[in-house]
Amino acid sequence: MALKLSVLKFLSKPAVADIAKLPCFIIAACDSHHEVLSRGEDGLKRLLTLSLDNEELVDRLMDLYLGPPASNDPAVSPVSPNTVITAPAATAVAAAAAAAVPGAAVVNRPRGEATPAIKHRIVSAYLSRSIVAANKMPRTMTIISDCLSGEFSNKKLKRDGIVFLQWMIKMGATKTIKSVSLTIFNELMRVLQEPPDNRDDLDTIALRSAAYVSLGQICARGMIQRKRNWKKKIS
């Protein structure tokens, strides 16, 4: 925990770009240690003026959600005195902070995607309010699909996925929506056809209702045609 707090203290300095700070503070705000979590939340409050339509920022958030591709493998890349190697055991906060150090070349060892709690924060607070994120195909649709039907999806993420999907339908360019309209339709059908644990559960009712609304939105934009049997499928 001491390492995490030291990194967060470093990130509070003006020398670190706000765009580099945001993913780190999101990770900290989802930490299990109260002091780290509190520092993360405080850091996020100081970044409320960041533009969510900054393409570099959106790319960083999507990288954090999905996990960045492995690059500059240490086995084949020369390691200089200025190289910062982020080992698998290092915290994500420390790794992100290392990337923010001016003049340091960063070697990323492969790491997985974000935890469900971090994914929830990324989608609900940032991506579902960004016009740029609504048009970042195919990554936008990959994130929505993961929220709705990913291996580690939960009720919160399913709700986030529907909200992000509705935002994408509303704010996405016609060309963007048209390119993924069939995928959207299939994702919504998967939600509606999934056997509910409890039909009377309020979360289940809300999720299914939102899926119906999304179907209406995509049809209203004229993107779903000749789906004459769709009512039969979801009855």
How does this structure look, described?
The chain has 12 helices and 2 strands. Strands 1-2 form a two-stranded parallel ribbon. It folds into 2 domains: 1-50 and 68-112, no CATH class; 114-235, Serine Threonine Protein Phosphatase 5, Tetratricopeptide repeat, CATH 1.25.40. It is globular, with a radius of gyration of 20 Å. It is mostly helical and 235 residues long. Helices cover 59% and strands 3% of the residues.
Oligomer category: single chain
Share in β-strands: under 5%
Shape estimate? globular
Q: Tell me the helix content.
A: 55-70%
Summed up, the helix count is 12
How far do the termini sit from each other?
Answer: 52 Å
Q: Label the structural class.
A: mainly alpha
- Side by side, the strands of the main sheet go 1-2
Spans of at least 5 consecutive residues with low confidence: 72-110
Number of strands: 2
CATH topology of the largest domain: Serine Threonine Protein Phosphatase 5, Tetratricopeptide repeat
Kindly provide the radius of gyration, computed on alpha-carbon positions and rounded to a whole number of angstroms: 20 Å
CATH class of the largest domain: Mainly Alpha
